[in-house]
Amino acid sequence: MRRARRFVRTVVLMGSAVLAGAAAMGVARSDHARQTQAVAAHADWPQGPVTLVVTFPPGGGTDTLARRLADRLHYRYGHAFVVENRSGASGNIGAQAVARARPDGHTLLVANSSYAINPSVFSELGFDPARDLVGVINVAYVPSVIVTRAESPWPDLLSAVDAGRGKVAGQDDVPAYASCGNGTPQHVAAAMLNQSTGSQWLHVPYRGCGPALIDVMAGTVDLAVVTASSALPHIQAGSLRALAVTSPERSALLPDIPSVAELGVTGYALNQWHGLLAPGTTPAPLIERIHAAVNAVLAEPAVQQELIGMGYDLAEGEARDFQHVIREDLDRFAVAARRMGLKVN
């Protein structure tokens, strides 16, 4: 009798285990089916016009890159890719607009490292960079370059640095530099240089690299720290003189121009990423689809040759790798901003 009861209990337990296993397999299959359906649902992106919101005015490096991508994406996928410049607050205005957009993959943000700097510099963003936007693809890195007009009295960077030493910022004889905006990588690059050398260059923020370049060429400001890609045509034309690049080593775009570190500022380096971001609630399969679509364009030899010729160092990695870069930069620039006392009200 006892053996019979044990047998029945064993059979019941075995049956329960089988049912549990079957249920688990059913859940796994159901999850897999939902994931497969989700991927299939977004496989035909884009389904209409796509707006690429650029956080700076026309003429700068971010805008130039966005327009090259828009042309190639249109050619490859047949839909319109419209570049919309929403400048102001070092990119916060454009970022806020995309953060509030529908998460359907048809409104994307084209931003640079300013996105990761702004939370530590601005007291109010209007969005949460860790939640409201998500990285799609890191397109490329580009160094910034310190330039002055061709007729400038400073033949090299060290002479311009010396002109700002031991003086009070705001005095007439202290060099003034234009940046692409408050809290931009170019602003941070110059602040780092001031801190490292004891110079006191006066900061004059602009609403993008394009306007900054116009004023330094006109002599309104003495110097500018801008993306190398935006300055290159003017350097080649002789309107600007390049003094140094902010990358750790010389740039392939400007091989004759020394890096700041090479000139004796130990440990100095700041490269700038350019990438695409989407509203934070965009489905993961759609993020992967957009990443793959843009990556296919970037893999075209003609596109690679063009972007490298413009001074961009093409990035690699998946969408989650770019999101990791953004999170690391949010932390890194928070430390740098506190150390340098950078704050914009």
TrEMBL record:
The keyword Signal applies. Coiled coil: none annotated. CDD domains: PBP2_Bug27. InterPro entries: BUG, Bug_dom1. Keywords: Signal. It holds the Pfam family TctC. Residues 1-22 form the signal peptide. PANTHER family: BLR1237 PROTEIN, TRICARBOXYLATE-BINDING PROTEIN. Belongs to the UPF0065 (bug) family. This is Tripartite tricarboxylate transporter substrate binding protein. It comes from Yanghanlia caeni. The lineage of its organism: Bacteria, Pseudomonadati, Pseudomonadota, Betaproteobacteria, Burkholderiales.
